[in-house]
Amino acid sequence: MTDETAPVRVQVADGVATLSLNRPHRHNAIDDALHEQLVEAWDAVVADPDVRVILLRGEGRSFCSGRDTAQLGERPAGESDRAFIRRHQEFRERQLSAPKPVVAALRGATFGGGLELALAADLRVAATDVQLAFPEIRFGLMVDTGGTPLTTMLAGPSRAKWMLMTGRTVGAEQALAWGLVDEVVEPERLDEVAATLAAELADKPSDALALIKSTVDGIWDGAVRAALRAELAGQVALFAGEDYRARKQARLRRPDLS
Q1: CB-based burial, 198-224: b 16+ in 10 Å, e otherwise
Q2: In whole angstroms, how large is the CA radius of gyration of the chain?
Q3: Cα–Cα distance between 157 and 7 in angstroms, integer?
Q4: Which end of the chain has less Cβ packing within 10 Å, N or C?
Q5: Are strands 102-106 and 123-127 parallel, antiparallel or unpaired?
Q6: Active-site residue 116, yes or no?
Q7: Taking a C-beta distance cutoff of 8 angstroms, is the pair 54, 103 a contact?
């Protein structure tokens, strides 16, 4: 039985594993506990022979608002910025290399690391209320788990720069026009439409799906991995920079900011 209070809820039925981010009071922001459980749940469903498709969704009003700002820049005892970022990148690489199709159901805030999680899925269904953004620039930082290459490949280099450099939000219709999502539906239909798509894929031959996925992804796999290394080097430098430290201190003096 699934723990209703767990940061990540897992349900498996008819070949579909549904992973629900479950911190709705924080718009499913990723803290250390959620990330740890998401990695554990992900590895389990990828290894489960009864799972043919993975569906990612969020409880409450949002899919995922990215790294929980209450823990931004914090590291487990003894872990360096480089080791912390690389550990999160390794999970993104496992997500991208999973042979099973991944569908993401997006609503509300889909920011930062949450948007990277969504862009690494194979197909994305979005509610009309979705808001996509990379707010890292406001902290003097950049994305570091694949947002740069994934946005560039889906939306093009100019639009990727627009999102990454400005931190502005992109709504549902603009995201659809830019190729960041594949279908837009009313919020009350999101879970139904995404689940129907996942069930349709689960009914297809698994070997053929895996080969199609690996063939398409193989076209740009090397570029993604090279970009991840560049993001790692850049983000480590930014965390050590004066601009990030100054902005962090400014936020500490203004705890009312979200």
Answers
A1: bbebbeeebeebeeebeeeeeeeeeeb
A2: 18
A3: 34
A4: N
A5: parallel
A6: yes
A7: yes
Catalytic residue among 116, 186, 200, 242: 116
Q: Is 145 exposed, middle or buried (0-12, 13-18, 19+ CB in 10 A)?
A: buried
Which of 4, 136, 173, 186 does the annotation list as catalytic? 136
Does residue 71 carry a pLDDT above 90? no
Angle at 134 between CA 132 and CA 139, to 5 degrees: 145
Calculate mean pLDDT across residues 37-51. 98
What does the pLDDT look like over 152-210, one tens digit per residue? 999 999 999 999 999 999 999 999 999 999 999 999 999 999 999 999 999 999 999 99
Judge whether 136 counts as a catalytic residue: yes
Which residues, other chains included, contact 230 with Cβ-Cβ below 8 Å and sequence gap of 6+? 148
What is the model's pTM?
0.95
- Report the distance separating Cα 64 and Cα 70, nearest Å: 15
CA dihedral 149, 153, 156, 157 (to 10 degrees): 30
Residue 135 one-letter amino acid: P
* Residue 40: other Cβ atoms inside 10 A: 12
Non-local (6+) Cβ contacts of 143 within 8 A are 112, 113, 116, 134, 136, 164, 231, 235
